[in-house]
Amino acid sequence: MTDSKPNASLTAPSIHGDALPPVEQHAQQYATVRNAHETELIEDYVELIGDLLTHRGEARAADIANRMAVSQATVSKMIRRLNELELVTSKPYRSLFLTEAGQKMAETSRARHDIVLHFLRALGVKDATARIDAEGMEHHVSDETLDIMQRFTEQQQKS
Amino acid sequence: MTDSKPNASLTAPSIHGDALPPVEQHAQQYATVRNAHETELIEDYVELIGDLLTHRGEARAADIANRMAVSQATVSKMIRRLNELELVTSKPYRSLFLTEAGQKMAETSRARHDIVLHFLRALGVKDATARIDAEGMEHHVSDETLDIMQRFTEQQQKS
DNA sequence: CAAACAGTTTAGCCTTGGCTAACAATGTTG
DNA sequence: CAACATTGTTAGCCAAGGCTAAACTGTTTG
Ligand SMILES: [Mn+2]
Ligand SMILES: [Mn+2]
Ligand SMILES: [Mn+2]
Ligand SMILES: [Mn+2]
């Protein structure tokens, strides 16, 4: 449960960087990341489907495969999963649509994604880089940090 | 290869948010994230082993399991992989050590992790939240963004 | 209206990263 | 030094998320 004991003296000033966090806190960090990894691909799919519906009027499996640079078989399998999760509705060989729950997830994900992207641009990151970084970072940003990012971006825009 | 055609008028002002990026750029975003996911767990292990060696003098499988909140079997299996990748050396039932390549990876990961963590704190994020966010974000931050974060943190500290 | 083409699905394979249960080795202590 | 506690390994299971190949459906067009 606890770490093996450090055998160094108890009070000597550390020559190293930050100390290790307490075990429970450290474990929480990793657990939160593992958790995010379970949902992030789902979020990206739902967000993309929402964007395609908004900007193109329809969301076809082939478009998703191209946009994600993934095989159509992979998309087809994922769509089955999204169906089981009741996030999308689909008739065979037809465009996809989002359920109520799917729309909610798409909006939330899109909003969060935009906050992160706009924040990175406000920081001075080039657009192409900001887009790449935001695609990964978005799933690992807490609400607290998100708020701070949003305020930062607004401040930046006023000046 | 290309999206299905939008049938909306060509020049009408969009009532929606940001337009979709070009397919190739969009695909690059997702591909970069998938790539990061292949290496991030490895990086976390190597970084943690380095930290344990630095702060505790040894890195035992049980400590890793506790710190990551994961079973010992999972750690044991991952250590075999790290061995195959020649990032760690291990004798059965003995502490782990990092190879040259492992030390290099540990340093790089630790440095990047610290930049992200210190940046979040400089932004005003509470320590516990910053630690959680940094654990996930670190793997999705480009060198360009990392530079900007570091400069931001330094600026913040001067004032 | 029949082909050809484009899009979708299914089957079967692989790797990663989790888990539990059982067993083996090592360390501690009465 | 024997028993017990801790630590490490192995085996076998599972789900997720990739892939290719092949079959099937729907659309376009000669
Ligand atoms: Mn997204
Ligand atoms: Mn994303
Ligand atoms: Mn890290
Ligand atoms: Mn990490």
From TrEMBL, chains A, B:
Sequence ranges of Polar residues compositional bias: 1-12
Keyword hit for Cytoplasm: yes
Location of region: Disordered: 1-21
SUPFAM superfamilies, A to Z: Iron-dependent repressor protein, dimerization domain, Winged helix' DNA-binding domain
PROSITE patterns assigned: HTH_DTXR
MF terms in GO: DNA binding; DNA-binding transcription factor activity; protein dimerization activity; transition metal ion binding
InterPro entries named among the record's database cross-references: DtxR_MntR_Metal-Reg, Fe_dep_repressor, Fe_dep_repressor_sf, HTH_DTXR, Iron_dep_repressor, WH-like_DNA-bd_sf, WH_DNA-bd_sf
Pfam families membership: Fe_dep_repr_C, Fe_dep_repress
GO cellular component, one term: cytoplasm
Keywords: Activator, Cytoplasm, DNA-binding, Manganese, Repressor, Transcription, Transcription regulation
Subunit (UniProt): Homodimer.
Designated name of the protein: Transcriptional regulator MntR
